Amino acid sequence: MQFEHIGARPRIHPDAVIAPTAVISGDVTIGADCQILHGAVITAEGGPITLATNVIVMENALIRASATNAVHIGEHTLVGPMASVSGATIGDEVFLATGTRVFNGARIGDRCEVRINAVVHLRTVLPAETVVPIGWVAVGDPLQLLSADRHEEIWAAQKELDFPGYVFGLDRETPDLMVQLTERYGRSLARHDRDVRLD
């Protein structure tokens, strides 16, 4: 299913294959020989998304751009089932395994592997050919690779990256943070009520 969102329509190369249950919304460019499988959602929420050639987006993966963070996915990259990419730049020949999460402002270099259920956090930079082990967390620039049981170290690095400030423009110390966050984000997402189905 393809949708026009806030005046922008998807541009899909005729050689790309899009499953009938995939959702492509807004300012999305999909290159030649891409494969977008069932249940995948590619949604440009104010910023563009570009998939180069030969990108595979597997079942139920989510790719989302925001007004402040576009998405670019390089050639010959695989986005695994149930993986999520939000506002990130992904290089060529990258493997994002099942269940991986890549957050806003992250930059993943060429030929990296982010293995099953691993996380690449906000504004983190993975140099080319980095491997993030199964279930581990990549955080920061310079990069730290930490196992999930090292929560205090992850939080120390993550806190400095300021997720609510960077993504939502809100101070973490705001007394009613979640009230403001959900109301602001909800208003932005509500723009989908004016989407136009194109197919």
Give structural notes.
With 199 residues, this protein is an alpha/beta fold. The protein has one domain (2-197): Hexapeptide repeat proteins (UDP N-Acetylglucosamine Acyltransferase, domain 1, 3 Solenoid). Helix content is 15%, strand content 31%. Strands 23-22-19-16-13-10-7-4-1-24 form a ten-stranded mixed beta sheet, covered by helices on one side. β22 (137-139) and β23 form a beta hairpin. The longest helix has 13 residues, at 177-189. The relative contact order is 0.11.
Question: What is this structure's SSE topology?
Answer:
Elements: E1 2-4, E2 11-12, E3 17-18, E4 23-25, E5 28-30, E6 35-36, E7 41-45, E8 49-51, E9 56-57, E10 62-66, E11 71-73, E12 78-79, E13 84-86, E14 89-90, E15 95-96, E16 101-102, E17 107-108, E18 113-114, E19 119-120, E20 125-126, E21 131-132, E22 137-139, E23 144-146, H1 151-161, H2 163-168, H3 177-189, E24 196-197
Parallel strand pairs: 1-4, 2-5, 3-6, 4-7, 5-8, 6-9, 7-10, 8-11, 9-12, 10-13, 11-14, 12-15, 13-16, 14-17, 15-18, 16-19, 17-20, 18-21, 19-22
Antiparallel strand pairs: 1-24, 22-23
